[in-house]
Amino acid sequence: MRSSIRLGRLFGIEVGLHYSWFLIALLITMSLGAQFQASHKEWGSNVIWALSILTALLFFVTLLAHEMSHALVARAHGITTKAITLFALGGVAQIEKEPEDAKTEFLVGAVGPFSSAVIGAISLGVAWALGWHMGSAPETPLHAMFVWLGYINLTLAAFNMIPGYPLDGGRILRSILWLVSGNPLRATQQAAKVGQGIALLFIAFGIFRFFAGAGVGGLWIAFIGWFLHQAASASYASVTLTTGLQGVHVSDVMTTQCASVDGNLNVQQLVDEHLLRTGQRCFVVERNGEVLGLVTPHEIKAVERQKWPYTTLYDVMRPLGQLHTVTPATPVMEALETMGRDDVNQLPVISGSHLEGVISRANVLQFLQTRAEMGR
Ligand SMILES: [Zn+2]
Questions:
Q1: What whole-number distance in Å separates Cα of residue 305 and Cα of residue 229?
Q2: Residue of 12, 32, 303, 323 with fewest CB within 10 Å of its CB?
Q3: What tens digit of pLDDT does each residue of 342-354 get?
């Protein structure tokens, strides 16, 4: 999930909103407004809507605090978080890599629900300090706000403790399975399977509720189930990928025959004489035997077709200095992570100062396909 709108940095971590956030913020504000109108019409429209908006905003602040707690505990264990994005169903912290031991995984997972529970308890405490009686209906606008924030955060803590990966409870389950078996990959697969199972229960329960007359509420539960199922399946796939690529190095999958081309060629010539004729997808731009950069279909597509005859490869190539490089001994998983970070499809493979070849996403895919066909 990428942020659509960047809000800024907090503790050095990029915080952003996804478009779907606005939809849910609006829904929460509307439903709070309707709820307050029904129970406390005497507060007046202005107070009710200001209160609803403020409550919805504070709710997202508490969600952000939940995600931030994951990020800060991860950082304390040497794992960086790229960004936190708030979206329709909560927040996600893009934690850059998997923890290396079960204990860290446990702490990173557990701190989220713990934070939400603490925030929930503090909110109820504030309401109580302001004169609200536990269990009674809130009487003042401030009571209403803190009581709602209290209960929603306690609910959030409980929901996140559901032991299905990638929910926090699933991370905790994973860390325990990991500790028991010593096998992080199998632990993730098991926790993701549990996650898929729980998601299916959500869907079934939501559909049942819908037909039992619960209306949109039932569909909402089913939708959350569907979302959880997607997330669990994606985690399962990513673990399977990690497993499939364990022990595989760049030298096992890279292309060594990258044709060298002269940088003075224009794009049209490259397409006509090299790309279409040979089917090769990567070209090394050289001058006097020195590698200057790479050209792939990706760079060519960035140039308008009419300009092809007037654009040289020097103009479009990705200079070597701008690209991260890998060595033949780099694990493929690491190369994929670098590509992901830089948003490129290939990386030059360098050993010493010599270009050994190029590794692309397509290479990796082909490798996995061949393996799968061989039944390995
Ligand atoms: Zn969490």
A1: 43
A2: 12
A3: 777 788 888 876 7
Residue 163: DSSP 8-state: S
Cα(24) to centroid of ligand 1, in Å?
A: 18
As a whole number of angstroms, the distance between CA 156 and CA 59 comes to 11
CA of 195 to the centre of ligand 1 (A): 15
Q: Ligand 1 centre and the CA of 110: distance in Å?
A: 8
How close is the Cα of 93 to the center of ligand 1, in Å?
Answer: 8
* CA 74 to ligand 1 centroid distance, Å: 12
Find the 159 Cα to ligand 1 centroid distance in Å.
10
Contacts of 190 (CB under 8 A, 6+ apart): 174, 177
Q: How far, in Å, from the CA of 164 to the mean position of ligand 1?
A: 12
340 CA distance to ligand 1 middle (Å): 23
Whether pTM exceeds 0.85: no
Q: Whole-angstrom Cα distance, residue 209 to residue 204?
A: 9
- Sign of the Cα torsion 368, 196, 85, 89 reads positive
Can you state the percent helix, strand and coil of the chain, rounding each to 5?
A: 60, 15, 20
Residue 376 in this model has a pLDDT that exceeds 70: no
Q: Ligand 1: distance of its center to the CA of 166 in Å?
A: 9
CA-to-CA dists, residue 72 to 76, 80, 122, 132, 156, angstroms: 6, 9, 20, 33, 19
* CA 160 to ligand 1 centroid distance, Å: 6
**Packing angle, helices 216-244 and 361-373, rounded to 10:** 90
Q: For residue 312, what are its two tokens?
A: 């040289």
DSSP letters spanning 133-161: -TTSPP-SHHHHHHHHHHHHHHHHHHHHT
Interval between CA 222 and ligand 1 midpoint (Å): 20
Mind listing the pLDDT tens digit for each residue in 176-217?
Answer: 988 888 877 778 888 888 888 888 888 888 888 888 877 777
Q: How far is the CA of 304 from the centre of ligand 1 (A)?
A: 45
β-bridge pairing 259-262 and 354-360? unpaired
What spacing in Å lies between the alpha carbon of 92 and ligand 1's midpoint? 8
The size of the chain, in residues, is 376
Beta strand pairing call for 318-319 and 283-287: unpaired
Burial label for 48, CB within 10 Å (0-12, 13-18, 19+), is buried
